[in-house]
Amino acid sequence: MMEIVMKRSCWIVIIALLSVQLPAMSRNAVAAEPEQVEVPAGVGAITVKITGLRSSDGNLSVALFNAKKGFPGKYDRAIRKAKTPAAGSAHVVVFGDVPYGTYAVAVQHDENGNGKLDANFLGMPKEGVGTSNNPKSKFGPPSFDDAAFVLDRKSVELTINLRYL
Question: For this UniProt entry, which residues form the secretion signal (predicted)?
Answer without folding.
Answer: 1-31
